[in-house]
Amino acid sequence: MAATARASEHCRPRSDSDRCPGALRLHDALDGALARVRLPGGRASAAQLAALAAGGRLGSGIVEITSRANVQLRGLPQGAGEPLGALLADAGLLPSPEHERARNILASPVAGRHPGAAGEVDELVAALDRGLCADPALATLSGRFSFVVEDGSGILSGREHDVALCVSRGAATPEAGLFLDGGDTGLRAPIAGAAELALEAAHAFIAERGAAAAWRIRELPGGAERVAARMGVKLAPQVDGGPAAGGRTTPPVPPGRLRQRDGRVAITALPPVGRLDPPQLDRLAALARGCGTEARLSPCRTVTLVDVPDAHAVAVERELDDLGLVLDPASGWRGLSACAGLRACRRATADVRAAAAARAAQRAPDAPAEHWTACERRCGESGDVPVAVSIDAQGGEVRTGGRVRRVAAVEEALVLLAGERGS
Ligand code: SF4
């Protein structure tokens, strides 16, 4: 499994403390307090969707899907932490308050269900989460340390990670391989026991980190090699941007309908710029409940209802469309995201959400992922996004494939990107 993080992130020493927000440790954002709720595997049951809607109502009503398939509730007032914590705990979204920021576990929104999946991984994700939450030492992991569980479909191949379990068909039965920051440890385990490998790797990182101010494996000099050595193995040479384990790389799940391996369907909808409001979440909860299923959020800021019986598919699609969500796989909204921007963040001087809407009208459906931000803080910009635009009152810059160009304003960035091949 290859990592595509920017080289500059590797081994960069940390001089600040980990202020990554959580559900209990709120971030004092410019539009009020911000809570980030971790959803391992991007999973949210009907009751949990309803709890997130209620949490959104405590604040401004802006609910964002993040680039790690978590949820952010914005504009929370002073004193909202306690009622928010209570309603999240009631919905099972805080199984261990001490570990709430460490539960960064990514999986495909159609985990184990994609036609290319090599095995079922829902239980692996759940076992990893349980193991993490049961281990006091692992509560010291940074809120940015991430686990990836790739089911062999290749949908998460190349996704940056600290620790990844990558499932392949194996000689007789499916097995999971352990990767550290893109490097193959050569360690393999049956899926049922693979969570232990990932937890062992997290312990090895904590031991290697010692007192160093490193949040992630890549921030330790020789980090992946050192963690592997502590586990008693030698890491295979790392290949940034190279082929994934098993040679399979699959594009993200597009909006619309996907036939699952078991014959049922998964229906994916895209909220423009990854933003939902409480009424939409309530209706999603009702929809999931009515189908006897749950929602899966993805790093592409989509919502997928999995395991939908054929007989319900058309009605589900109609309801998602009625909610204002995008179901067209050819939509220019695919892969397009933006920070909170004007009217949600006082630092913003450019309306990057309006800019994103303009880009959605011009982008090709297979254009590379693109993120817009309204100041140099670049909130929500993942290290591996191919196109990044940052605009402020002084102008801004457009980054495409390692090339950085200055622009005077949003309009110039739009013109520049419209002229890019394949954009
Ligand atoms: S990047 Fe966007 S959301 Fe983040 S501080 Fe700047 S304007 Fe605010």
Please, could you describe this protein's structure?
With 423 residues, the protein is of the alpha+beta class. The protein folds into 3 domains: 241 residues, Sulfite Reductase Hemoprotein, domain 1 (2-Layer Sandwich), CATH 3.30.413; 66 residues, Sulfite Reductase Hemoprotein,Domain 2 (Sulfite Reductase Hemoprotein, domain 2, Alpha-Beta Complex), CATH 3.90.480.10; 83 residues, Sulfite Reductase Hemoprotein, domain 1 (2-Layer Sandwich), CATH 3.30.413.10. It is built from 9 helices and 20 strands. The strands form 4 sheets. It has a 5-stranded antiparallel sheet. α1 runs antiparallel to α6 and α8 packs parallel to α9. The longest helix has 16 residues. Bound molecules: iron/sulfur cluster. The site of iron/sulfur cluster has 12 residues, from loops.
What layout of secondary structure does this protein have?
Elements: E1 27-29, E2 32-37, E3 43-44, H1 46-58, E4 63-65, E5 71-76, H2 81-90, E6 105-107, H3 122-133, E7 147-150, E8 163-168, E9 175-180, E10 183-190, H4 194-209, H5 223-230, E11 256-259, E12 265-269, E13 275-276, H6 278-291, E14 295-297, E15 303-308, H7 310-322, E16 336-338, H8 352-362, E17 370-373, E18 387-392, E19 395-400, E20 403-407, H9 410-418
Helix pairs in contact: 1-2, 1-6, 3-4, 4-5, 8-9
The chain binds iron/sulfur cluster (SF4).
| Helix-strand topology string | EEEHEEHEHEEEEHHEEEHEEHEHEEEEH
If classified by CATH, what would the architecture of the largest domain be?
2-Layer Sandwich
Q: Count all strands and give the number.
A: 20
Give start-end ranges of low-pLDDT stretches.
2-9, 240-246
